[in-house]
Write a structure and sequence with these properties.
With 67 residues, this protein is mainly α. The protein has a domain of 34 residues. α1 runs antiparallel to α2. The protein is rod-shaped, with a radius of gyration of 22 Å. The relative contact order is 0.10.
Length: 67
């Protein structure tokens, strides 16, 4: 993700001229999309960790409950 953001930011800032507004706009969108995908993946990972911990706690509780 960092590599993609670096590529897009370098292209945006260093490799586009004043008359390339369409190209800069597309690079800006691409840069932002990478950031949003990265945030989404972090959320999925963290949510998965939380769900895993909750499931583990539930199973322990079930094992400790005697009928």
């Amino acid at each position: 993700m960092e590599t993609l953001k670096k590529i897009y930011s370098e292209a945006l800032l260093e490799k586009t001229g004043a008359k390339e507004s369409d190209t800069r706009e597309k690079l800006w969108i691409a840069y932002n999309v990478v950031g949003k995908v990265e945030q989404h993946l972090h959320t999925i990972v963290e949510t998965g960790k939380l769900a895993s911990k909750q499931l583990e706690d539930f199973r322990k509780q079930q094992d400790n409950t005697k009928f």
